[in-house]
């Protein structure tokens, strides 16, 4: 079964060459992971990028029942950015399949497997600015599944989810020591 590929662009005109190239490469993801319901490719040209090497952006999002995988890459060439993002999403699919279907199997605890914490970048002193707004549908999941989704999506600092046990919105975040914290808000 071949899943339809949605291609969205910003500041780029989609030519037949780009559409064929992207569709041919991305259609192969069905072989790696059955159950993919939606594949989305976002291609953009950012004129005001700091570096010329970061002008072309390719983001691939794969959705299925119970999972969302995403990769984003930047390059000076649109095709190079897409190829890098495609390679990255394939690695994420393999990691997802390994964790989801096979488990770790080496007897180590989850705390031993968690990678080192990444230092936070200093914020700009110009003041807070909301640069982007996002809306998404929350799927109920357990805490361990939220950690897995956070890793698979490439979110390094936090992840918002609906806790299946409490049916409340929770925020999962990575602490400086590499462990995870969970914020469980209450309304008064």
Give a structural overview.
The chain has 188 residues and is an alpha/beta fold. It folds into two domains: 5-102, Double Stranded RNA Binding Domain (2-Layer Sandwich), CATH 3.30.160; 134-188, Sigma 54 modulation/S30EA ribosomal protein, C-terminal domain (SHC Adaptor Protein, 2-Layer Sandwich), CATH 3.30.505.50. 29% of the residues lie in helices and 28% in strands. The chain contains five helices and eight strands. The chain has a four-stranded mixed sheet. It has a four-stranded mixed sheet with strand order 5-6-7-8. Helix 1 packs parallel to helix 3 (78-102). The termini are far apart.
Please describe the topology of this protein.
Elements: E1 5-10, H1 16-26, H2 29-32, E2 36-45, E3 56-64, E4 67-75, H3 78-102, H4 110-113, E5 140-141, H5 143-153, E6 158-163, E7 169-174, E8 180-183
Parallel strand pairs: 1-2, 5-6
Antiparallel strand pairs: 2-3, 3-4, 6-7, 7-8
Mean pLDDT: 81
Please give the CATH class of the largest domain: Alpha Beta
Overall 3D form: globular
Do you know the CATH architecture of the largest domain? Answer: 2-Layer Sandwich
Number of helices: 5
Helix content: 25-40%
| Rg, alpha carbons | 18 Å
CATH superfamily of the largest domain: Ribosome hibernation promotion factor-like
Biggest sheet architecture: 4 strands, mixed
**Class of secondary structure makeup:** alpha/beta
Strand order of the largest sheet: 1-2-3-4
Strand content: 25-35%
How many β-strand stretches? 8
Number of domain units: 2
End-to-end Cα distance: 49 Å
Q: What name is given to the CATH topology of the largest domain?
A: Double Stranded RNA Binding Domain
Strand/helix succession: EHHEEEHHEHEEE
Low-confidence stretches: 116-124
């Amino acid at each position: 079964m071949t899943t339809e590929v949605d291609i969205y662009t910003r500041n780029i005109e989609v030519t037949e060459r780009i559409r064929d190239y992207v569709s041919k490469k991305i259609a192969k993801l069905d072989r790696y992971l059955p159950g993919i319901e939606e594949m989305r490719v976002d291609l953009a040209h950012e004129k005001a990028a700091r570096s010329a090497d970061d002008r072309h952006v390719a983001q691939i999002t794969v959705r299925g029942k119970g999972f969302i995988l995403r990769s984003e890459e930047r390059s000076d060439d649109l095709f190079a950015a897409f190829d890098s993002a495609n390679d990255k999403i394939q690695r994420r699919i393999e990691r997802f399949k390994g964790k989801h279907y096979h488990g770790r199997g080496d007897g180590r605890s989850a705390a031993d497997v968690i990678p080192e914490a990444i230092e936070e970048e200093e914020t700009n002193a110009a003041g807070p600015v909301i640069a982007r707004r996002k809306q998404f549908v929350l799927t109920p999941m357990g805490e361990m599944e939220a950690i897995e989704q956070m890793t698979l999506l490439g979110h390094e600092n936090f992840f918002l989810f609906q806790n299946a046990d409490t049916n409340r919105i929770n925020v999962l975040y990575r602490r400086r020591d590499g462990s995870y914290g969970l914020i469980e808000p209450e309304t008064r």
